[in-house]
Write a structure and sequence with these properties.
The structure is a single chain. The protein is α/β, with parallel strands linked by helices and 461 residues long. It has two domains: 6-78 and 374-428, Urease, subunit C, domain 1, CATH 2.30.40.10; 80-365, TIM Barrel. It is 37% helix and 23% strand. The protein has 17 helices and 17 strands. It has helices at 26-29, 58-61, 101-113, 118-134, 147-157, 173-186, 208-221, 233-243, 247-253, 274-278, 290-296, 303-308, 320-323, 328-343, 351-365, 399-406, 433-447; strands at residues 6-17, 34-44, 47-52, 65-70, 74-78, 80-85, 137-144, 160-167, 194-200, 224-229, 261-265, 284-288, 312-315, 383-387, 412-417, 420-424, 427-428. Helix 4 (118-134) packs parallel to helix 5 (147-157), helix 6 (173-186) runs parallel beside helix 7 and helix 14 (328-343) packs across helix 15 (351-365). The longest helix has 17 residues, at 118-134. The structure holds zinc ion.
């Protein structure tokens, strides 16, 4: 045992362990998680230095530490990863409901987004970070505008994030150049907690030449590409009718399947797309955000076919304007339920698989599978402690079932990123929510004004 005091020791927890955290084949790894009782987690320099299992009273035998948490009765999980969101859109939470996506974009969201100010982006991102810390999310992949502001908020609130400055071809080459400039300037910042992506909006708003150039830049600079593609079936059908190609064909033709790629949604991915995904030479992730699909009346992401094709399927919330919450726990529960219904198979997408998607597979999807997603020595100390003593989670016959189908995000008591406690016993340590929410509500009347007739883009897939 290392004689130097640890920075943080968490003792007496039951811990979710991935027995094969380095197995990269999604099919082989799909079901493999286990729980170990009486675990001590030793954290040094933001890293899990040791996972000591099966100590009868681990508090007594744990190494010396600057800070200790006695987690008796709590379950330690790797922090959840939100693989696709637009964090500042919490400012539009619940503004427009019960409409199809064309109307939602063209009459509401894109006109209103022409009113965005950097102060609204900042307050929205801060509120989003608070919501995610509260709900046990330790890392998120964000795809939006004014991302320098979001990066500053990530640095301040302590979360981990992969950030991409979104662009449309309608902005000219400057859009892509800004996205690259942001990605190169901010990657590795916030003590290494920020990684970055190139972020074209979608194949229907970014042309083939721009997508091809993006793939070349991603290869040259070793960057992830994060975009929306095959968001729904109608979009795939329109792409086929107009261009004779599916959105996945477009990604293949422009070289994006040969770089590391994070695809948001993919609910319109067809069987004919699977060979291209299977043959991809880049690491392909798909972020699935089932709540929004249910609201828009869409099909859901074909998780089983994608896992079979070697794709890493992560969980996500999308922005709160469509999804209402940034609750990855809810996305996990809904994924398990919706997948059973979609496949007409109660044996598919078990609670174990759902936990695996929310943790290690999500980490892989955002390109961080080697550093987070699992409670294993050498990985960054991103974890949450969950309290299952509530009446809605008792008794516990099977921890996986209790976590996925009975527990809720508000059962998370403590959230830790890079060894730093961002929520302790339900209390946030880095965000003052009343002050953020108060200032944001004063800015809402100017934000939601649509009388000017402008919009940032036209939704026409
Ligand atoms: Zn999105």
């Amino acid at each position: 045992m290392n004689p130097a005091p640890a920075d943080l020791v968490i003792s007496n927890c039951t811990a979710l362990i991935h027995p094969d955290p380095d197995e990269t084949d999604p099919q082989l790894a799909a079901d493999s998680i286990e729980f170990r009782p009486n675990v001590t987690l030793v954290i040094r320099d933001g890293v899990i230095a040791d996972v000591i299992a099966e100590v009868a009273d681990s508090a007594a035998s744990a190494p010396a530490a600057a800070e200790r948490i006695d987690a008796r009765g709590l379950v330690a999980l790797p922090g959840f990863v939100n693989c696709h969101t637009h964090s500042p859109m919490v400012a539009l939470r619940g503004l427009v409901e019960d409409r199809p996506e064309q109307e939602w974009f063209n009459d509401w969201i894109w006109p209103i987004e022409s009113n965005l100010t950097s102060r609204i982006v900042e307050l929205g991102a801060r509120l989003a970070c608070a919501e995610m810390i509260r709900g046990g999310v330790t890392c998120f992949a964000d795809h939006y505008f004014a991302m320098d502001t979001v990066a500053d908020v990530v640095a301040e609130t302590g979360l981990r994030a992969n950030l991409g400055e979104a662009f449309f071809s309608s902005q000219g080459p400057e859009g892509r150049e800004r996205s690259l400039d942001f990605a190169l300037r901010r990657r590795g910042s916030a003590g290494g907690r920020i990684t970055t992506s190139l972020a074209p909006h979608a194949p229907y708003t970014v042309d083939d030449a721009d997508l091809t150039a993006t793939a070349e830049l991603a290869r040259e600079h070793g960057l992830l590409v994060h975009l929306h593609a095959a968001e729904n079936r109608a979009q795939t059908d329109t792409s086929l009718a107009r261009h004779g190609r599916t959105p996945i064909d477009v990604l293949k033709d422009t070289g994006l399947l040969d770089v590391d790629l994070l695809i948001a949604h993919g609910t319109g991915i067809l069987d004919r797309d699977l060979p291209a995904l299977r043959a991809a030479t880049g690491r392909i992730g798909v972020a699935s955000a089932p709540r929004g699909y249910l609201k828009f009346g869409w099909d859901t992401t074909p998780v089983r076919a994608l896992v079979d094709a070697g794709v890493h399927v992560g969980l996500a919330t999308d922005g709160a304007a469509s999804n209402n919450t940034l609750d990855v726990w809810e996305a996990m529960t809904l994924t398990a339920l919706v997948q059973k219904r979609t496949e007409r198979d109660p044996r598919w997408l078990t609670a174990r698989q759902a936990l695996r998607h929310a943790t290690l597979d999500s980490a892989r999807a955002v390109g961080l599978g080697a550093s987070i997603g699992s409670l294993a020595p050498g990985r960054r100390a991103d974890l949450v402690l969950v309290d299952l003593s509530g009446p809605h989670t008792q008794p516990v016959h099977d921890l996986t079932a209790t976590l996925v189908h009975s527990a809720r995000s508000h059962d998370v008591r403590t959230t830790i990123v890079d060894g730093r406690v961002l929520m302790r016993g339900g209390r946030l340590t880095t965000v003052d929510v009343p002050s953020v929410a108060g200032e944001l509500s004063e800015l809402l009347p100017a934000l939601v004004e649509r009388g000017h007739g402008r919009r940032i883009q036209e939704y026409d897939t």
